[in-house]
Amino acid sequence: MISIEDPVRKAVIPAAGLGTRFLPASKAIPKEMLPVVDKPAIQYVVEEANRSGIDDVLMVTGRNKAALEDHFDRHWELEQALEKKGDKLRMARVQKSANLGNVHFIRQGEPLGLGHAVLCAEAHVGYEPFAVLLGDDLIDETEHLLLDMIAARHEFGGSVVALMEVPEDQIHLYGCAEVEELDGDVVRVKSLVEKPAVGEAPSNLAIIGRYVLDPSVFEILKHTEPGRGGEIQLTDALVELAGSQEKGGGVTGVIFRGLRYDTGDRLDYLKAVVRLAVRHRDIGPEFRAWLQAWAGSDEALGRSGKTAHLGH
């Protein structure tokens, strides 16, 4: 029988999206493999799971995502070439992605939404609590959001969502939580609304892409009807769990106030690259100095007299 003390040993990373906001870059390359400084975005997510003590990761993918499997596999030819050169630094970087734990893959088959992607993981997860990490949200390596969420699960049971305060004029872009305080930044979630209309949001607390779910969510997802966008919404299943008195019911929220990098669209992706680049241990100081000097230049201010035409 499952207990709230059971460890969270597995993580699910939905990665079946088409990445249409990044076309044409994502036409042949999965958006999850787009580089953020010197690593693909998806590696940051797997590293976060690994730092949280989770070494069993299931990626739910779709067609044309073979690059994800290749990235987390060994590349013997490349490693042999680097070994011959005596390039230990690059060797370690190449091997790291293959040493982050056991990374498994399953196809979603049909693009039926986040709830359906999570349901695809049922056979792998079994009847134990598990984490869900969305690849568009990168959490800084200095933060411990997932560990805080696991601790909340151990204390209060049920499922846990990550919440972040956002400006009121942006809450319509997110799922939104109605909450009551439990203990500081840990709250009880009374209800959830997916992308509420402006002026109708119950709070300014947005759901960001981290969840620790009780396995009872699977049975709920099986009878969850398609919602917004004609997709099976994980939010709808969480609403049912939030109001449930059954074993495994209840939803807790952890309000996150740390460093998060949004790679969900082109502008936010570029901001994430810059923010992580200035913090990078190798190139950060030099890049920061260049950026500060360049920001005040004629080129940056559009006064260079030259206009670049590289497409839109």
Automatic annotation (TrEMBL):
It holds the Pfam family NTP_transferase. It is an enzyme of class 2 (transferase). Residues 10-273 form the Nucleotidyl transferase domain. The keyword Nucleotidyltransferase applies. The keyword Transferase applies. Belongs to the UDPGP type 2 family. PANTHER family: UTP--GLUCOSE-1-PHOSPHATE URIDYLYLTRANSFERASE. NCBIfam families: galU. This is UTP--glucose-1-phosphate uridylyltransferase. It comes from Branchiibius cervicis. The gene is galU.
